[in-house]
Amino acid sequence: MAKIGDRVRFLNSVGGGIIRKIEGNIAYVDDDGFETPTLLRECVVVEEAAATEKKVALTQDAVKPAPAVSSPASAKSTGSAAVPAPEETPEGEKLNVVLAYEPADIKHLNTTTFDVYLVNDSNYYLYFTYLTRADEAAGWTTRYAGIVEPNIQVFLEEITGADLPSMDRIAVQMIAFKSDREFRVKAPVAVETALDTTKFFKLHCFHSNVYFDKDVIAVDIVTNDIPRKRMVIDSSRIEEGLKAKKAVDRPSRKPVQKKATTKRPDVIEVDLHISELVDTTAGLSPADILNLQIDEFRKVMDSNLKHKGQKIVFIHGKGEGVLRAALMKELNHRYKGHQVQDASFREYGFGATQVTI
Question: Is the full-model pTM beyond 0.85?
Fold first, then answer.
């Protein structure tokens, strides 16, 4: 059971932080100075209080180690709490993996930095390496090595224009597996492809993508279990690349998000984005905007309280999580007793909450 001081992540939603206080079955989780009330049973401990206080900084010159993925049996044997298995979908049985480059400031491509992400849209864990080399280089350089969880996009590194000359070619090697259940074995993947680095300075080369809110340069690594292009593996060169790696370690992970593509007729959808509620926000403070959104939420809830079984999806967006936290507070106090869960991420992304009356 989680306790005060533990670092946790939320079981059924994005985010997490350090538990500052516990009242009954509600934990107040500090995420960058904002306390989010969350059901205690939905907090998964990732670091106990003592470890949080004595956390030791990792050196930046070492290859990022792959986190351990323990089986339920090993969790029982050590006495530690087992992390619940990820929710699976029929579509997730096929691997879909994308490498993406997202500019920090798309209006200033000559000076901006770029965030590099690997998207794992599948039910499988992926043990992978991400490598690059210049055309004239003799060997590869490992830029990231580790494990990415199912339905997660993981931040790999931040690059600048000065890094691009060493990235004429990119390669991704992967082994897919599940740690807690039987699964179909996937063939190991080793994909190598050219990266036209001149595109990073051309606005029209950045395009929308179902996994990102901003325009990106995306490279499909695996599509429906089919790798983009298999590479001929030279193990000696890969070993040289591993030894020469210069790590850039910023452990930032976020769940895979796809833009909504379908709607269900039996569900009431309520978009709480302020642009959907008022014509202009001129003169409104952040507190005024939040009050308008909460008023709309209450109006919809009050008008449906007699409709047992009615499903309502409140679209609040990801943002900083302030609106979602306010909705959860309402549902935990003013509107107790209703079933609350994250709305389908394949239909709404991770910016919506479903309430069943």
Answer: no
